[in-house]
Design a protein that fits this description.
Length: 267
């Protein structure tokens, strides 16, 4: 959790720990809560939709103005890049938003792939097939229809030069997860039965099964994205807020306050 501003660190549990008096697995028999006086805005997978992100920021700002709270924290669940056409603008907006010390940006599998692609040509080839082509286009790099191992070196060489250092630094600083009160925030899910601090990065950013089918309570109420759903999916042990923004135009913002959970709707 190094690098999180002190103001947030007072509210966010240290890795693998809980606030005093908050122990035991979270299930349908216990209502998950955030600390008193704290509101958390959680934003799902963005995937290059800078337009939807700007609209979501406007909704959050309007909601905060209309309903002041002692402390508010915004948590992004990762997958900022790929698929949508405006990944560069998304990262610019997030960097600007992080000037507010109460903003936590987590790591998604697409964000991990983008960084790895700049170093590994085999990863780069796979990345192009899963949305990397659109991301490179956002940085002014036109990728040929047919790409082989020779071509990919040229493409990635351009990417290394054109992607701003500030964008690479943003991606490198992304956290694997964060916890606030009874909630754990991460991109994809966890491997059931393993403590949060012992989860692998690959599982945190990319797992689906057995996490999605697990009905057993976890140590935290898990808030995640990664697996698209038609509407926010509230389960006794997890909440999925990836509503496929890049294709549906619906970027979900979940609000957590005391023991309440609700979606901040567009007006």
């Amino acid at each position: 959790m190094d690098g999180i501003p002190i103001l947030i660190r007072k509210l966010i549990d240290r890795v693998g720990k809980r606030l005093p008096g908050q122990q035991g697995a979270i299930s349908s028999r216990k209502v998950a809560r955030v600390p008193d006086g704290v509101r958390v805005y959680v934003i799902g997978d963005i995937h290059g939709r800078a337009d939807l992100l700007a609209q979501t920021f406007a909704r959050i700002d309007a909601h905060e103005a209309a309903h002041p709270v002692e402390q508010s924290i915004t948590v992004f669940l990762g997958d900022y890049v790929d698929r949508g056409l405006r990944s560069r603008e998304v990262i610019d907006q997030l960097i600007e938003r992080q000037q507010n010390p109460r903003v936590v940006a987590l790591r998604g599998n697409h964000d991990v792939s983008m960084l790895r692609a700049l170093l590994d040509m085999d990863v780069a080839l796979r990345w192009l097939a899963t949305g990397g082509r659109e991301t490179l286009h956002a940085y002014g790099i036109v990728v040929p229809v047919d790409v082989d191992h020779d071509t990919i070196h040229t493409v990635i060489g351009l990417a290394v030069k054109r992607i701003p250092a500030s964008h690479k630094a943003f991606l490198e600083r992304l956290l694997p997860y964060a916890t606030i009160g009874d909630y754990a925030f991460l991109h994809a899910g966890i491997r059931p039965g393993i403590a949060l601090e012992n989860q692998s990065l690959d599982d945190l950013v990319a797992i689906r099964q057995p996490f999605l089918d697990c009905a057993a309570p976890h140590d935290f109420m898990i808030v995640h994205g990664h697996t698209p759903v038609s509407a926010p999916d509230f389960r006794p042990n997890r909440i999925n807020i990836d509503t496929g923004a890049y294709i549906t135009g619906n970027l979900t913002c979940l609000v957590l306050e005391e023991d309440r959970q609700f979606v901040l709707r567009a007006t």
